[in-house]
Amino acid sequence: MLNKKMAAVLLCLLLIVTGSIQKAGPAEANNGFVTITASNLNVRGGPGLSYSVVSKVNKGEKYPILTQEGDWIKIGLSAGREGWVAEWFTSKVTTSNDVNPSATTGIVTADSLRVRTGPGTSYSLAGSLTNGETVTIVESTGNSIKIKSTSVEGWVSKEYISTGASSSTTQARTQQTEAVVSSGVNVRTSPSLSGEKIGSLIKGSRVAVYSQSNGWAQIQFNGTNSWVSSEYLEFANQTAANISNSSLPQATVSASTLSIRDSASLDGSVIGQVLKGQRFAILEESNNWVKIEYETGKTGWAAGWFFEKSQNKAPVSKRPLNGQTITVLSNGTNIRSDAGAHASVIQRADNGDRFEVIDLTDDWYQIRLKGGKTGYVAGWLVSLTGSGQQIEKPDGGVHTKNKKIVIDPGHGGNDSGTIGARGTLEKDLTLTTAKLLYNKLKSSGADVYMTRTSDTYVSLASRVATSHNQNADAFISIHYDSIEDKSVRGMTTYYYNNPNLAKELHSSVINKTKLNNREVRYGNYHVLRENRQNSALLELGYLSNPTEEILVTSQQYQQSVADGLFEGVARYLKVF
């Protein structure tokens, strides 16, 4: 009898354990999977907002579909749990591997492609890939694919992997650009001086360049992928049509490597490639995309924000400059690489420094620097020795001179702000924009202050205190926006008390960038509400929109925004 009782007890225990084990696994996915498209999405106990939250899921994560009622999907969670999510925050996939079986390899088409540990930007970084690298495609889900290369394995955005060619070598060769070696150069195994030297090329050698990354060019050397410094290459891919077609506006590529597509969209197929420094005639424009002839007889579309545009002008009449010198009037005056405030600063000069004048272009003096180098300085920042008329400061400088401007780069330190669809941190981008604006205002004679100049946390009260302590004529708070709906794009500007500054800044930036206009609005923000000075807060584009994130992080856009903000504040100070 005892043995029978023991056997019954053991049988019950076995059934309980077996049931527990069966419940531990995830629910079966008879209806496919969903990928979560929202950050920190609530999972509810039933199909509706009235049900309590039972869990949270993150953007990019994939879950099996158990059933669906209206706009709500029941998903299987870990440890046998389940819950409901709103369909409009998901993307359905019917299989975990939707890559074309014949396309087992791909080519990276982005300059620096982030690889993550899971299918979405919420996952941590596993490494990065450079343009032109070959990868093996392992798996795909939604807009992400799992890849494997010689250096890293993980998940990347599908739009930056091209799988259209029958082999990686074939595709790479269709996108090559010819270059001539201008001086003897070492060939290395990786794009760095620390890369192993495997040979060298002599002056005059011709090479096919497949991609560029951070000043290095990828070539084929003895049948292997190798790298040389782009500094020693002269590219010969400008077509005669581009050079001779002087009636059309011209544009210079500003990205290291830029894909050419068959339509004016990131959804277009990659059909070619151009490199930084190449100049093309713009044949057509559409929604921030430009059509160019990238090879003789071949046209395609490229992202317009990766071009520096310049309308052809009649030759500027030169003033005689032989034997003349200029003297710098202020400490910290910028010497730039080209004629214009958009050009990079190559060094700074102080009050009393003198330089020999070589040439004059649009009110900018080209001057001779030490070591045989040359640079450009704004004519209104120096005095001219010898015959010639002194160059006056442009109109904007008249109204900003001696005015106190406080620039407030949003977020900083442990407050990253929003994180873009491709991983851009708002705190970094606001500081970049603020520094560009600071340089423009400072050069115009304004008294400029920044609430932060590095990646540090500054409280909202401290930001307002800076505005009050400096008795600011204008307080400009710089931000970038985010929203769950990835299709939303454009610029919004906010005010609290007086809309005049916000209106001038907004209209000027819209005019310069052609961004979608979301208008000037009332905003109950601390830095506006508690600020006694004239203030405005600008949201300069949506980082949650993948296409707009690419736009607003480009050098061309940043320069255009800074130009617009400068003109807007100058106009405001002139009128008000």
TrEMBL record:
<dbReference type="InterPro" id="IPR052354">
    <property type="entry name" value="Cell_Wall_Dynamics_Protein"/>
</dbReference>
<keyword id="KW-0961">Cell wall biogenesis/degradation</keyword>
<feature type="signal peptide">
    <location>
        <begin position="1"/>
        <end position="29"/>
    </location>
</feature>
<dbReference type="InterPro" id="IPR002508">
    <property type="entry name" value="MurNAc-LAA_cat"/>
</dbReference>
<feature type="domain" description="SH3b">
    <location>
        <begin position="29"/>
        <end position="93"/>
    </location>
</feature>
<dbReference type="InterPro" id="IPR003646">
    <property type="entry name" value="SH3-like_bac-type"/>
</dbReference>
<dbReference type="Pfam" id="PF01520">
    <property type="entry name" value="Amidase_3"/>
</dbReference>
<keyword id="KW-0378">Hydrolase</keyword>
<protein>
    <submittedName>
        <fullName>SH3 domain-containing protein</fullName>
    </submittedName>
</protein>
<feature type="domain" description="SH3b">
    <location>
        <begin position="248"/>
        <end position="311"/>
    </location>
</feature>
<keyword id="KW-0732">Signal</keyword>
<feature type="domain" description="SH3b">
    <location>
        <begin position="103"/>
        <end position="165"/>
    </location>
</feature>
<feature type="domain" description="SH3b">
    <location>
        <begin position="321"/>
        <end position="385"/>
    </location>
</feature>
<feature type="domain" description="SH3b">
    <location>
        <begin position="176"/>
        <end position="237"/>
    </location>
</feature>
<dbReference type="InterPro" id="IPR017293">
    <property type="entry name" value="N-acetylmuramoyl-L-ala_amidase"/>
</dbReference>
<dbReference type="Pfam" id="PF08239">
    <property type="entry name" value="SH3_3"/>
</dbReference>
